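Q: How do we represent a protein-ligand complex in a form that can be generated token by token?
A: Start from the inputs.
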Amino acid sequence: MNITFLDACYSKKTPFTPVWYMRQAGRYLPEYRKLKESYSIIDIIKTPELASKVALQPIDILGVDAAILFADIMTPLLGIGVDLDIVESIGPVIKNPIASLSHVEKLRLLQPTQDIPYLLQTISILRNELKEKVPLIGFSAAPFTLASYLIEGKPTRDFIKTKSFMYNNKNAWELLMEKLSDLIIVYLKSQVRAGVQALQLFDSWVGALSENDYKEYVLPHTKKIFESLTSENIPLIHFGTNTAGFLTSFSDVDCNVISIDWRISIEKAWQQIGFKKAIQGNLDPILLLSDFSVIKKHVDEIFSSLPKREGYIFNLGHGVLQQTPVENIKRLTEYVHNKR
Ligand code: CP3
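Then emit the structure tokens for the protein with coproporphyrinogen III bound:
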């Protein structure tokens, strides 16, 4: 088995730089688009044979060094009965967004074996299929990112409802963060029990906050999540975008790897994160729509700015875009693997 990804998470020396991509399974792949003609994304997630097939596609097609469970950040909310849909080209849409303390009080805890048996089954199929290949990453959204969908009801650019709720309903916000943290811990532990070998917490939208607000309203909860996962003894990754302004606080959690976007150089980021943690990122996904010579130039820049090679996992700063030519991402993977 290729364990370069796991070794790099623990900042151990690896024979080459491991590579994987957020959203490596998805609509840029013709094999995935074909399946989407017959099934919705929720159908796929709820059918272990399909979800595992989709998660394996990029392993064979791209030659990446890790697989990621095929699910969505909404899966645990589906599990506890939140009425939602994942709408093509929009994203998660929630029927009754949260607007009050009484609504928060009604949210219940997840019971993985009853609520999401399909997900646990997908993990076990994947582990079996990946035996000789690469490790499997499990994931969840972080409380802020989940809360933003629950409160806005749909994707947003400005997070007006989320932040207003946070500023003006402190008790309800705290209860929501506590409930989501407990749910996330149960959810991630169930994934580990089912067989995932690393975990990534996606706080995709937390960069909407100032550093002080991050520390006051979010960090204590994220800290608690990571603290309760350290006993699992697998690598833990903390991902966010737009975190350049508060990276020191963002990395002040018990995790092994910090994943950054493209808005800060790895060199600067690593100084702020501290060299005890590994780093993941940070190519701009939009670059993958360019000619390969442009991609190559930016990858070379990343590598020449790296203070050290061990503890570096190559990834994009955010997910692979739908318009990405498969050939570019294949070549990119090969290029990084051969980089000396
Ligand atoms: O390969 C993988 O990375 C695994 C699968 C995965 C999906 N969603 C499947 C998916 C993962 C890791 C996610 C996480 C996710 N989902 C995040 C965190 C990562 C990030 O990008 O910040 C977020 C914020 C979501 C919420 C969400 N779900 C969005 C914003 C969208 C995109 C809307 C669109 O159509 O552009 C989705 C839908 C979704 N989740 C798709 C996939 C493959 C695409 C739509 C589809 O296939 O129907």
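Residues 113 and 239 are 27 Å apart (CA to CA). Residues 22-27, 36, 41, 68, 70, 72-73, 86, 88-92, 139, 155, 202, 204, 318-319 surround coproporphyrinogen III (CB under 6 Å).
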